[in-house]
Amino acid sequence: MSNKNTRVVVALSGGVDSSVAACLLVKQGYDVVGIFMKNWHDDTVTISNECPWVEDSYDAMIVAEKLSIPFQTIDLSKEYQERIIDYMFNEYKIGNTPNPDVLCNREIKFDVFLEIAKNLGADYVATGHYCRVVSENNQFKLLSGKDLNKDQSYFLCQLSQKQLSKVMFPVGELDKKEVRLIAKEQDLVTAEKKDSQGLCFVGKVKLPEFLQQKLKIKKGIVVKISNNNSQYIDTPDYNNHSLENLRKLAKPFDYSLKDGDVLGEHDGAHFFTVGQRKGLAIGGSKEPLFVIKTDVINNVVYVGEGKDHPGLYRKVLFIKNKDFHKVRTDFDYKNVNNKFESRIRYRQPLQESKLVFGESGVFMIFDNLQSAISKGQFAVWYKNEELIGSGVID
Predict the structure, then answer these.
(1) Which of 91, 254, 316, 341 could staple 249 via S-S, CB 3.0–4.6 A?
(2) Residues 1-8: what's their mean pLDDT?
(3) Do the domains 3-214 and 216-394 sit in the same CATH topology, yes or no?
């Protein structure tokens, strides 16, 4: 089948990456359709008079006109509310740190949007993500983008083989400078447009402000834990990989009020996450204060002084079986070298790790101490440049 008989529906976001993705597909002779997803229009969380989705949709339309491809806007705000927003707020309420961008890709862009595209006769959907997909032995491999500074494979860590079989990432082989250059050469209106910094569904609204308009302020105390707290006296045995010891190592330090001193107040433990430095608004310390534990039941935030505070660091995390996701369904974890490169947040440099399987879940053991392992976030693991799997940190 020639490219002209292959229809690709591109998620045009109004940014330069998706614009160039569409441009490249047109040049390769595909039958290209552009769609802008309107994902949010709740005026109760508008922080400024700016209306980013209107501007973005207009830019997407101008790009589509330039490329002479059909274009339409679809409203997916209902699906976002049900699948992303409600889940996200429920997670914050119980003290977890969800990643809405990962969920956005799994639940919206490559599920709801993919089904809409199929109804439009699409063979594939395409986005401007910096990653790659290759087919090998009836399996689809998710590879990191060639531009490692922009690699976005982490955000696609929950995709299935079925989803990967229907996606294209045209800019995955390029670096950002090349993408900008192509946009400029093709005179695309988005060529000089800055990358969006807000949430994937809210645009320019920042997460703290968004949460404060949806979750109630609830005053509580901030407790400082000293660096020589008694919980650090027993040196953890990281060489003992028995399941009993791993369960112990995977648990965060169990601080209580008796372990520290009250420093001040906060507006709600659900607004904070482990490793957070900004937002405490408490001075008087020689070094910055970092959140090392949140207790949403008793509404207490525990902090430590300095980025080297022992309470920030662990080597082991746990993923429940139900939250363990195989991107490569054929990967044999038992009969391969149990060495992976992993990360627990976007842009974190890859870390050497191994996986140990127990009855109720999987332990990820790092070679080096990791800062701010946060419950609810996604851990991912790679072999070379291929993302093999992911899981929600317990």
Answers:
(1) 316
(2) 85
(3) no
Whole-prediction pTM: 0.92
Tokens of 62: 């101008």
Looking at the domain that runs over 216-394, which CATH code has it been given? 2.40.30.10
Q: Is the pLDDT assigned to residue 201 strictly greater than 70?
A: no
Residues designated catalytic: 104, 200
- Pick the closest to residue 84 from 200, 212, 204, 203 (CA basis): 200
Q: What percent of the chain is predicted at pLDDT more than 90?
A: 77
Instruction: Write down the mean pLDDT value for the chain.
Output: 91
Is residue 219 over pLDDT 70? Answer: yes
The label of the residue with tokens 């009993």 reads 244
CATH 3.40.50.620 fits 3-214, yes or no: yes
Q: What is the pLDDT of residue 47?
A: 44
Residue 229 confidence (pLDDT): 75
Q: Where are the domains of the chain?
A: 3-214, 216-394
* Total count of residues recorded for the chain: 394
